Amino acid sequence: MRTHPPGNAGEVFTAFLRLGLTAFGGPVAHLAYFREAFVARRKWLSEAEYADTVALCQFLPGPASSQVGMALGLQRAGWRGMLAAFAAFTLPSAILMLLFAGGAVFLGETLGSGWLTGLKAAAVAVVAQAVLAMAKTLAAEKIPAVLAAAAFALVLLVPGAFSQLLAILLGALAGLLLLRRSTPGEAGSTNASQRPALPVAVAVSALVVFAVLLLGLPVLAALTGNDALRLSEIFYRAGALVFGGGHVVLPLLEAQLVPTGLIDHDLFLAGYGAAQAVPGPLFTFSSYLGALSQDSLAPLVGAGLAVLAMFLPGALLVAGALPFWQRLRTWAPARRALIGVNAAVVGILGAALYDPVFTAGVTSAGTLALAVAAFVALHRLKLAPWLVVVGAAVLGQFFF
After folding, report:
1. Which of 279, 288, 233, 261 is nearest to 390 (CA)?
2. pLDDT digit string (tens) for 274-287?
3. Residue 99, class by beta-carbon neighbours within 10 Å (0-12 exposed, 13-18 middle, 19+ buried)?
């Protein structure tokens, strides 16, 4: 018998809208914000269930943080919750990037301001707090701690999205081989209320649609020469094939859009800077690019098509994979593997804390002091993350 989701789309939309308006710092910081909002505060799911969701989305191509958000919405309120999470978390930054596209020629010179420096320093504190909390829960025992350290070293020494996937695979294998039995409690538990309200047939259909669009859109675009199909094909392929989050997709988009004359190189770089200065997922850079693409489409139409095409493959993969993932993790060998995966996720987030979060956010003694102050405000004073982020931005504007 199918389990009804425990929440409703309205509460999902409200919760994610706050994050869509305040979640600065890129995909790694977004995972930290999600953990604080839905694990620590609202308790929609456990620490281990959240780590399982993050691990699944690390396996899948596309915008990892947005996929985690969609998965959380799906688990909480079914497909309506998934749509609500996507819309609330994505639309604020997509609208901001669309507005910026209208004034990009005039505003491109003002992106490297002090408030952006403050936001990057705050992201260091947010991610550090999340890594510390997850390490205490998911890498406290000897073997998981060793696996976390190994994943940390692998991702740092072998940069690139492939090393993250490899770290997760090796973590799963090590957990399966080194752990005689899964530890009792969360890592192997299944909370029925967390099962997505999607039948298996719908999940399989989502995977089929994903594959059909990936293979069919390029053919249709080539046969018809239609500008809408050509733009959709470029962004769908980017969202479907790129691992590692928003920063990794940028070179691919530049190769597809700049040499072909769809967008000017200087405007592309200006939009890249702006995308780092707005809340929400970096993949909403697609809104800016779609609006400025040199084709027959109106800016609003181009932006809408680009955003939908960029995020659609990730949504289809989450809807298709999550039901099978949740069934698989109730199997005893899979639970052992998941303990290793969870430890690897801690190591991966720890590596990301160093690069790119720390290396980009701490560039001087002043930014280090600001990052430490933000960490104390979060970890000891228990201030809301959005308040710390806004405060860091204000301090950054005054002092950097």
Report:
1. 279
2. 776 788 888 898 99
3. middle
